[in-house]
Amino acid sequence: MERKNIIMAGVVILVILLAFIIAMSLSGNNSFQNGQLYFEYPRAWSQDHVIGNFSNDTIYSEVTLKSSFPGTNGQDQPAFIIMNMQPKSQGLINTPNATSLVTNTSNSSQVSVGVSNLTAIQIGSYSPNIAQKTTVIEKNNYYYYTVEYICLPSSLNQTEEAYNQILKTFRIV
Fold it and tell me: Which end of the chain lies in a sparser environment, N or C, as judged by fewer CB atoms within 10 Å?
């Protein structure tokens, strides 16, 4: 009888250990490093596609992360986080600045923030149908990064958490 109890205790310990290992493998973060860019994002998000190599010798680089969350209709709805790097326009072409973008968007706000010791501007816009926030990070006089999310309001909390994690771990290496 005692031997049976010892075997049963061993089996229970093995099951608990296996459950712990599975839980640890499913939790945590993924990391992205390409060229000069590094950041971490939750495992619930996956890379949809990557364009370019996030280095000074490219004119455009982008990575799109995607996840699905239950919508108000019960069906899974996608949420996206898009990060890109591109050179600032030089010469005679005038692109709109953040202030003009904000004044042309309803239900929006603008705030200055710091990301990885770099100057950044955040622009957010929320409606009953869509939530969107963009952070513009200036690297130097030649390049800038944007980090943007687009999602339904029903997945705003999860998307905002992933977005904030990316901004907290954002590094130019």
Answer: N
